[in-house]
């Protein structure tokens, strides 16, 4: 056996001794530094870089919006890469445990902090980065940890903490170039979060100085170009768009940089219309732009709108919607623009609703346009519901009046026309087809291009139009489309053709006719019994009223509101909604300088005790919040008299209150108390009639429940076992509420106490006050400059509902900061636009509660919560 060389044995002993994680010798340090860095740290860092590249590649840029500073972290992407992050954590943890004397321990801690950040374990991430800042001897790593800590604070909107970190870093020396890049980029994110455009631009400019990656530099140049374009600085925007095309950027970004550079340079203002159109046509024809043809057509449509060529623009948008494209968000903008044109220009609210539905299917919930559409589309949904109910029920009721032979003839003709249409489609199958989407939308305005489309949006397809199609096709949108006097028999074969069609791929030669309903299916839609007709009639009556109300108050269309409400009164002369219909007709005629007095006389003659009559008779009375408070006082006084069994005096106070303050949030409570007084001093039939009328008209669910129980008690039927007696329930609720606290009877408040959340300061004014408070925003800005110069407070205003406009000051880091502001506001703020009462009615609200208030639109409901929580 050969003897080992002594030097080799010594070398092995040195190697094995170096494996110890405790001995702080040169060989030990060298071994652990090398192993920690090139094994665990390297592999862990590579996995985190792989995740970040996945986040980047999965993000679909929306070039119509300013690009985000950082690529958004999608929770789905993190979930898909859980195993990757688990492996990275194990590697870094082992590096820390096995190589404790290595100088790469802190770097591995940083990687663990990043893993916690991506997995949304922000508390652990914050603790890790704070630990590194305090304990690490590596200045560069401490700086990098503070910058990442700053990003987390920005995510959480903890702006005081962000400012503290910024201040700390501003005093640090020798921040290296890589950290300066991360620092200025994170500062840009901070200014974006604070909506400070100037600060964001300045920080991005500084970021460029330290950006080494050419693709990243291209992206930052593009963001700067977008910001300057939105600020109206086209010359600067042009220069940055040109710079954004350098550095071999992705083709899509290069395309948009080129397109937008031309727009800010000359396209939007060019007088050479033909040259601009040729430019767009050349872009469209370029084979490199095959997946961007929808963008080119969309941009050309926007240009045509600037030239007031609406019809040309609409046709371009239709073509754009048929292009395949590679970005679903672009389809969202196309549908949104079509919806805006339908809504604002053509007043075609039905088409607008379906276009908005289509837009929502292409936007992501986090997209600004999604939130904007979602928050404003409700009235369109309601409009279409009632419009299509009128069209459908009116037609079905008309059909029910025909003989069975006539009904069968119409069904036969419909089936025949559908067969002819489908055969015509089959004959054209060999022709080149564009990807179709929404022929039924084009049919809304009678503007079919003659091409065959199919509606690729399942949300809109399932809405009213397809149901109506199954019930005998579409009604024409003629000049008198809002009238219901047209019978169903007026529907023509041409109108039936303009209906949603199935995709070619779904319809073969063999089953081409399967989509046509049978004669039995068609005839089964027609109501046969008086009960069925009565149900349709009831829905028709409701829709006439609700549509007329919507058209006046929400769509500002008094003419069409009058048509629907007059149809209601003519068709249903005994409708329970007649007083309110008269009232809206009175307002609509007054707005158009018509015969408003006619409806005032009808209200006084037919409904002398209605609150709508009181309102007409007292046009200059107090309204808004003041009317609510004073009517609350009247209610409390009347209730106390009722409780003391002084019914005549209670009724006198009630009637006086209703006459002086006829339409407030207290009206339904006042009316119910008046009905209760009827139960004490009027005959039984009068009491029963008033109860039934109240039940049909009230919209408050709690009051409705009490009124029903009162009617049950009166008629001798057993009341609900889970409720109190009618009067006892009202009395109990009155004992626990004060007049100033609640306008309606309600259960648990929808608002939550969250003092540590970002807050907003709100001044609420009545709509009329707001229209004359023109100097308020300027006065607030001056007040902020004098008293809060470094707080970066923002002011703005919006209409909350029909009655109130609100002025907003934001942001405040928490409730305490907002309360300090309000105290200063009450003491020192001066303006001719506000009374002392208006100032006293100002309030604070957290971001989360403000979102709830914006949905519920009830300021008094929130004030009740505010007084309990903040005072």
What this model shows, in words?
- By secondary structure, the chain is mainly alpha-helical.
- It has 5 domains: 44-274, Serine Threonine Protein Phosphatase 5, Tetratricopeptide repeat; 293-376, Alpha Horseshoe (Serine Threonine Protein Phosphatase 5, Tetratricopeptide repeat), CATH 1.25.40; 534-617, Tetratricopeptide repeat domain (Serine Threonine Protein Phosphatase 5, Tetratricopeptide repeat, Alpha Horseshoe); 624-735, Serine Threonine Protein Phosphatase 5, Tetratricopeptide repeat; 759-870.
- 66% of the residues lie in helices and 3% in strands.
- The chain has 43 helices and 4 strands.
- It has a 4-stranded antiparallel β-sheet, sandwiched between helices.
- Helix 1 (6-18) packs across helix 2, helix 9 (177-193) packs antiparallel against helix 10 (197-209) and helix 11 packs antiparallel against helix 12.
- The longest helix is centred in the N-terminal third of the chain and has 33 residues, at 26-58.
- The model is unreliable at 7-21, 23-29, 433-510 and 719-747 (pLDDT under 50).
- InterPro entries: TPR-like_helical_dom_sf (IPR011990).
- Residues 723-748 have a biased composition (Acidic residues).
- Residues 718-752 are annotated as: Disordered.
Largest sheet: 4 strands, antiparallel
CATH architecture of the largest domain: Alpha Horseshoe
Inertia-based shape: globular
What does the radius of gyration come to?
35 Å
* CATH homologous superfamily designation of the largest domain: Tetratricopeptide repeat domain
Mean pLDDT: 80
Q: State the CATH topology of the largest domain.
A: Serine Threonine Protein Phosphatase 5, Tetratricopeptide repeat
Number of domains: 5
For the largest sheet, list the strands in their spatial order.
2-3-1-4
Helical run tally: 43
Distance between the termini: 94 Å
Q: How does the helix and strand content classify structurally?
A: mainly alpha
Please identify the top-level CATH class of the largest domain: Mainly Alpha
Strand content: under 5%
What's the number of extended β-strand segments?
4
Low-confidence spans:
7-21, 23-29, 433-510, 719-747
Query: Helix amount, in percent?
Result: 55-70%
Protein name: Gliding motility protein
Keywords: Signal
Organism: Belliella baltica (strain DSM 15883 / CIP 108006 / LMG 21964 / BA134)
């Amino acid at each position: 056996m050969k003897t080992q060389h002594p030097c080799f044995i010594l070398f092995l002993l040195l190697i094995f001794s170096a494996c110890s994680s405790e001995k702080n010798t040169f060989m030990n340090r060298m071994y652990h530094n090398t192993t920690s860095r090139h094994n665990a740290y390297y592999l862990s860092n590579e996995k985190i870089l792989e995740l970040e590249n996945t986040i980047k590649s999965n993000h679909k840029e929306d070039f119509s919006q300013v690009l985000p500073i950082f690529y958004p972290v999608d929770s789905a992407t993190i979930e898909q890469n859980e195993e990757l992050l688990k492996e990275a954590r194990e590697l870094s943890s082992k590096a820390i445990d096995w190589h404790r004397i290595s100088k790469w321990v802190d770097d591995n801690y940083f990687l663990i902090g990043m893993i916690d950040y991506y997995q949304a374990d922000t508390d652990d991430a914050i603790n890790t980065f704070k630990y590194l800042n305090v304990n690490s001897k590596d200045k560069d790593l401490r700086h990098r940890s503070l910058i990442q800590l700053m990003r987390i604070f920005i995510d959480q909107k903890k702006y005081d903490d962000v400012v503290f970190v910024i201040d700390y870093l501003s005093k640090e020396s020798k921040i290296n170039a890589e950290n300066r890049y991360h620092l200025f980029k994170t500062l840009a994110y901070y200014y974006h979060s604070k909506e400070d455009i100037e600060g964001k631009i300045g920080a991005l400019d500084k970021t460029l100085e330290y950006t080494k990656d050419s693709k990243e530099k291209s992206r930052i140049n593009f963001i700067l170009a977008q910001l300057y374009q939105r600020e109206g600085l086209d010359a600067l925007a042009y220069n940055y768009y040109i710079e954004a095309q350098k550095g071999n950027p992705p083709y899509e970004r290069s395309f948009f940089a080129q397109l937008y550079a031309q727009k800010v340079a000359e396209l939007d203002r060019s007088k050479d219309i033909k040259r601009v159109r040729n430019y767009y046509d050349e872009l469209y024809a370029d084979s490199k732009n095959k997946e961007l043809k929808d963008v080119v057509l969309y941009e050309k449509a926007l240009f045509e709108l600037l030239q007031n060529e609406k019809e040309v623009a609409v046709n371009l948008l239709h073509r754009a919607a048929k292009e395949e494209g590679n970005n679903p968000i672009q389809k969202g903008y196309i549908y949104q623009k079509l919806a805006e044109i339908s809504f604002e220009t053509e007043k075609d609210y039905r088409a607008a609703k379906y276009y908005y539905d289509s837009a929502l299917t292409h936007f992501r919930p986090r997209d600004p346009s999604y939130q904007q559409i979602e928050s404003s589309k409700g009235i369109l949904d309601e409009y279409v519901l009632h419009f299509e109910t009128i069209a459908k029920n009116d037609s079905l009721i008309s059909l029910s009046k025909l003989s069975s032979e006539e009904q069968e003839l119409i069904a036969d003709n419909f089936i025949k026309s559908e067969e002819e249409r489908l055969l015509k489609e089959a004959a054209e199958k060999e022709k080149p087809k564009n990807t179709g989407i929404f022929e039924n939308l084009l049919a809304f305005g009678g503007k079919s291009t003659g091409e065959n489309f199919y509606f690729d949006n399942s949300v809109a397809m399932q809405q009213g139009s397809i149901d109506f199609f199954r019930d005998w096709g579409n009604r024409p949108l003629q000049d008198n489309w809002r009238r219901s006097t047209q019978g169903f028999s007026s529907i023509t074969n041409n109108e039936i053709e303009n209906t949603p069609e199935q995709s070619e791929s779904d319809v073969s030669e063999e089953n081409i006719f399967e989509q046509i309903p049978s004669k039995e299916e068609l005839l089964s839609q027609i109501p046969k019994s008086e009960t069925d007709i009565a149900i349709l009639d009831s829905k028709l009556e409701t829709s006439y009223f609700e549509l007329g109300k919507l058209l006046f108050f929400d769509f500002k269309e008094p003419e069409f509101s009058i048509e629907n409400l007059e149809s209601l009164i003519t068709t249903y002369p005994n409708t329970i909604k007649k007083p309110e219909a008269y009232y809206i007709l009175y307002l609509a005629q007054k707005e158009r300088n018509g015969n408003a007095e006619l409806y005032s006389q009808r209200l006084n003659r037919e409904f002398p005790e209605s609150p709508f009559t009181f309102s007409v008779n007292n046009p200059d009375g107090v309204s808004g919040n003041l009317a609510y408070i004073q009517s609350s006082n009247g209610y409390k006084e009347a209730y106390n008299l009722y409780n003391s069994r002084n019914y005549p005096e209670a009724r006198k106070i009630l009637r006086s209150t209703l006459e002086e303050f006829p339409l407030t949030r207290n009206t339904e409570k006042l009316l119910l108390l008046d009905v209760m007084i009827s139960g004490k001093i009027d005959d039984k039939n009068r009491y029963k009639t008033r109860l039934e009328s109240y039940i049909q008209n009230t919209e408050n669910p709690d009051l409705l429940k009490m009124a029903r129980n009162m009617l049950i008690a009166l008629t001798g039927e057993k009341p609900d076992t889970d409720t109190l007696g009618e009067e006892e329930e009202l009395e109990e609720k009155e004992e626990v509420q004060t007049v100033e606290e609640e306008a309606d009877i309600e259960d648990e408040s929808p608002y939550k106490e969250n003092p540590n959340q970002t807050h907003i300061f709100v001044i609420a004014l009545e709509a009329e006050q707001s229209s004359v408070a023109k100097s308020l925003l300027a006065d607030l800005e001056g007040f902020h400059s004098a008293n809060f110069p470094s707080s970066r407070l923002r002011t703005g205003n919006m209409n909350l509902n029909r009655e109130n406009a609100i002025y907003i000051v934001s942001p405040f880091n928490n409730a305490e900061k907002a309360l300090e502001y309000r105290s200063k506001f009450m003491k020192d703020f001066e303006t001719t636009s506000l009374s002392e009462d208006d100032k006293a009615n100002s309030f604070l609200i957290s971001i989360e509660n403000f979102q709830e208030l914006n949905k519920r639109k009830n300021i008094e409901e929130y004030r009740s919560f505010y007084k309990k929580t903040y005072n």
